[in-house]
Design a protein that fits this description.
mainly beta; 123 residues; globular; 11 strands
């Protein structure tokens, strides 16, 4: 699976952005999909994960209620709707795919990674 993240940009605090992750290959619909982010000088951190069918989602507490992860298997695309953005949300956002997954937060369990898209939230 090859992943291509897009949709990042500059937004004011309180604003919204929608990120997309387009996947190529036949394993998208059989993969758990997730978003991670990495702020300057910090480690990459888990944002959200969605199950193969999209029925199950899970968010890190700091994003819960503001971010929504979704997927469209017919389009081989995953999304992250981000609302009420804060300056501390500024980071490069990465999408990732896992063929099997037991620990959402463990980067080593993800088989494929996209190149990242930069989100900058100004105060």
């Amino acid at each position: 699976v090859q992943l291509q993240a897009s949709g990042g940009g500059l937004v004011q605090a309180g604003g919204s952005l929608r990120l997309s992750c387009a996947a190529s290959g036949r394993t998208f619909s059989s993969s758990f999909m997730a978003w991670f982010r990495q702020a300057p000088g910090k480690e990459r951190e888990f944002v959200a994960v969605i199950s193969r069918t999209g029925i199950f989602t899970y968010y890190d507490d700091s994003m819960k209620g503001r971010f929504t992860i979704s997927r469209d298997n017919a389009k081989n695309t995953m999304y992250l709707q981000m609302n009420s953005l804060k300056p501390e949300d500024t980071a490069v956002y990465y999408c990732a795919a896992a063929l099997s997954l037991s620990d959402y937060y463990n980067l080593q369990q993800y088989n494929y990674w996209g190149q990242g898209t930069l989100v900058t939230v100004s105060s």
